Amino acid sequence: MAIYRVDDIRDLSIDEIENSIQDLKSELSKERSLLATGSAPENPGRIRELRRTIARLKTIKAEKEKENE
């Protein structure tokens, strides 16, 4: 899954953001399980970038929900 930038996220609907969050969370759990088994990750910075992207998605989702109130 691609890493989103803020401008790309703002163009998405709330449902699309939720789907992206779920996809990224599953990818993050796969990366963490590889790390837990002791194998070397292909891209060591991927876990950090996934966490940051999930946080970006959640932040913008909350902003959009607040606008719609």
Q: What radius of gyration results from the CA coordinates?
A: 14 Å
Number of E strands: 0
Estimate the global geometry from the Cα principal axes.
elongated
Q: Measure the end-to-end span.
A: 31 Å
Task: Describe the fold and architecture.
- This protein is mainly alpha-helical.
- It has a single domain, classed as Helix Hairpins.
- It is built from three helices and no strands.
- The chain has helices at about 5-10, 15-35, 45-65.
- α2 runs antiparallel to α3.
- The longest helix has 23 residues, at about 15-35.
- The chain is elongated.
- The mean pLDDT is about 90.
- This is Large ribosomal subunit protein uL29.
- GO terms for molecular function: structural constituent of ribosome.
- It comes from Candidatus Methanofastidiosum methylothiophilum.
- InterPro entries: Ribosomal_uL29 (IPR001854), Ribosomal_uL29_CS (IPR018254), Ribosomal_uL29_sf (IPR036049).
- One of its GO terms (cellular component) is ribonucleoprotein complex.
Précis, in short:
By secondary structure, this protein is mainly α.
Describe the structure using short key phrases.
elongated; Large ribosomal subunit protein uL29; single chain
